[in-house]
User: Which sequence fits this backbone?
């Protein structure tokens, strides 16, 4: 797993939020890697910690969040021990993020072009004014925004256009890794479709690595080479997209796949999981999925299953992968 | 269609919203939110109203439950073979009607009063229905909560909405809507804010309730995959109008209207082995403010021609197998 083709290697990443009621165990022992040019989909339900992973990787943490242990190696450099000044050298330039709420990522009082120019000027001071202008033109073209919209303000943009502007901003410094947190969730399906296709094309063209976070497995199926499934702060399964969808091993992944309606293929019965996702203030013992798992035994209640390779490049944290006994 | 089986018959329903206000309070600009909407819903049927945000689907739902007043058109509601036009009901009659039609909203966090306990939220509908005995009310609330899967009911009745999860709240909202024993329920994206593992259960519950209690649904959603599971028929809306309507499977397999085609091809599929074709559509949704009389989809249509430009918006016509589309060219 530790080869030079990996642009990002995350080991045992553990992050808590301190609250008045005690620590919220949002990210617990996450280990995964990301190869150059690869797209990893991170899927899970609300509150499973997927956005907490994103902000941990960029160290854009709120005051009450602490990374307790683990490593985040970006091009072999561990970001965890770095202070704010240290991380700034890498943020945007090497690792950038696209947030779900595009409006919050754009400054309402500046036109879109000037915001992108400013982002480039700050992070790539070596570029001349001429080079920056050229770069902005290229970025607009790449994300499919017409040049005449450059001087307009964010409120004059539609939701889809704003999200494109935010993508242009994230791409502005040519990062090695881009993290996209539900970038199309607020958009209508036709706009989402166009944006997904463009993001995928850009990511492949620039040979950039991408972590695409979504609750929607059909979106994940479209954009990912590999998929990581999260449940209650833990990574429960990682495999190629095809294996996740067609040979899932973890009972949670299996349940997720059969709970999702599709317009394609024959209409099949949807299955639902009993119960609700756990409260991360007080997560269940052992395997955190055990209270909802149809295959759970006494062992699952006691022991945390090891996250291990069950088939080539197919990892799962389960004592009974595929429901085997 | 057998007339005895009709529950709601909607004719030329229109809702215009004024844009801005002139100095003298007059405006000549209107958003045509719902325009010449025609639909007949049969008893026990579940009709999906599908479209992108701003297409008028929520406004339609609110008109049908009279949370909004229509600008024009009729909504005939059948009870025992008798039709009443509820579009213009007022006062006491409108209150009566509200027992028969209910709306369930998207956001379970906003549809319950945070200061009223679950018992009170559900019992309210029973008081309106003059279930006066306290004991009867208690029994009925307990029964309703158990029907929607909140069991044992006693543990939920004395809790406040904030003590419940999103899925549980949506179940309370459903129990509350069912308390008045409505014949017709407009469900506006009731599962779109719920997590996947909860969503399937909620969809199942709503289908079961329709079977058990004979509830007729208008199911509003942006998600065609959800509509496929919930609905017997699907109506696709664009620019305040139905542009296509048909039996669910038939419409998904063989869409006729260019907008329906684009919408279907844009839906991501949870199967990486399926390669979809790109949606063939131009531009984006714009607000229909005093739109020209021609086809509402004209600006974005990949096949539009002179006929579409020069004629009024096309009527919904049978294009075979009972599937109706509003298009001159298909």
Assistant:
């Amino acid at each position: 797993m530790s080869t030079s083709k990996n642009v990002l290697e995350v080991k045992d990443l553990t992050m808590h939020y301190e609250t008045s009621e005690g620590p919220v165990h949002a990210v617990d022992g996450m280990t995964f890697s990301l190869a150059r040019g690869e797209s990893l989909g991170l899927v899970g339900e609300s509150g499973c910690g997927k956005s907490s992973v994103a902000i941990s990787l960029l160290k854009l943490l709120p005051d009450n969040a602490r990374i307790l242990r683990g490593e985040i190696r970006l091009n072999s450099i561990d970001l965890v021990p770095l202070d704010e000044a240290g991380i700034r050298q890498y943020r945007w330039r090497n690792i950038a993020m696209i947030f779900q709420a595009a409006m919050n990522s754009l400054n309402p009082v500046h036109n879109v072009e000037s915001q992108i120019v400013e982002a480039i000027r700050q992070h790539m001071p070596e570029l001349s004014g001429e080079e920056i202008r050229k770069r902005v033109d290229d970025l607009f073209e790449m994300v499919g925004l017409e040049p005449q919209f450059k001087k307009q303000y964010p409120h004059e943009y539609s939701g889809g256009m704003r999200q494109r502007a935010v993508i242009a901003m994230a791409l502005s410094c040519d990062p090695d890794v881009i993290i996209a947190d539900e970038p199309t969730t607020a958009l209508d399906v036709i706009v989402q479709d166009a944006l997904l296709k463009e993001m995928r094309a850009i990511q492949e063209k620039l040979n950039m690595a991408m972590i695409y976070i979504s609750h929607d497995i059909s979106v994940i199926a479209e954009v990912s080479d590999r998929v990581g499934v999260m449940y209650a702060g833990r990574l429960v399964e990682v495999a190629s997209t095809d294996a996740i969808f067609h040979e899932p091993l973890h009972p949670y992944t299996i349940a997720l796949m059969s709970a999702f309606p599709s317009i394609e293929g024959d209409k099949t019965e949807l299955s639902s999981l009993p119960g609700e996702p756990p409260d991360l203030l007080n997560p269940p013992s052992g395997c955190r999925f055990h209270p909802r798992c149809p295959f759970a035994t006494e062992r699952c209640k006691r022991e945390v299953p090891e996250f291990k390779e069950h088939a080539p490049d197919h990892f799962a944290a389960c004592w009974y992968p595929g429901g085997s006994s | 269609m057998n007339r005895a089986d009709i529950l709601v018959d909607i004719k030329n329903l229109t809702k215009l919203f004024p844009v801005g206000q002139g100095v003298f309070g007059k405006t000549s600009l209107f958003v045509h939110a719902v325009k010449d909407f025609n639909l007949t819903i049969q008893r026990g049927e579940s009709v999906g109203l599908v479209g992108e945000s701003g297409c008028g689907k929520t406004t339609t739902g609110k008109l049908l439950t009279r949370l909004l007043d229509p600008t024009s058109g009729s909504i005939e509601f059948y009870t025992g073979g008798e039709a009443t036009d509820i579009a213009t009901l007022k006062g006491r009659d409108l209150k009566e009607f509200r027992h028969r039609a209910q709306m369930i909203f998207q956001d379970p966090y906003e549809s319950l009063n945070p200061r009223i306990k679950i018992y009170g939220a559900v019992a309210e509908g029973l008081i309106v229905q003059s279930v006066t005995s306290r004991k009867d009310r208690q029994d009925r609330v307990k029964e309703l909560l158990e029907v929607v899967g909140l069991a044992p009911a006693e543990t939920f009745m004395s809790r406040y909405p904030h003590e419940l999860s999103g899925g549980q709240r949506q179940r309370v909202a459903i129990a509350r809507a069912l308390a008045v024993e409505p014949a017709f329920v407009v469900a506006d994206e009731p599962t779109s804010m719920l997590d996947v593992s909860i969503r399937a259960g909620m969809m199942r519950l709503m289908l079961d309730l329709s079977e058990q209690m004979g509830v007729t649904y208008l199911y509003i959603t942006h998600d065609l995959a959800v509509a496929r599971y919930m609905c017997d028929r699907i109506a696709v809306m664009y620019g305040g109008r139905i542009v296509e309507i048909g039996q669910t499977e038939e419409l998904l397999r063989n869409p006729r209207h260019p907008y329906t085609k684009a919408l279907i091809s844009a839906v991501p599929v949870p199967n990486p082995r399926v390669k979809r074709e790109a949606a063939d559509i131009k531009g984006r949704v714009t607000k229909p403010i005093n739109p020209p009389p021609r086809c509402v989809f004209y600006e974005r249509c990949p096949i539009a021609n002179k006929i579409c430009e020069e004629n009024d918006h096309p009527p919904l016509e049978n294009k075979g197998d009972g599937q109706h589309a509003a298009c001159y060219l298909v």
Q: What stands out?
A: The CA atoms of residues 26 and 52 of chain A lie 7 Å apart. The mean pLDDT of chain A is 92.
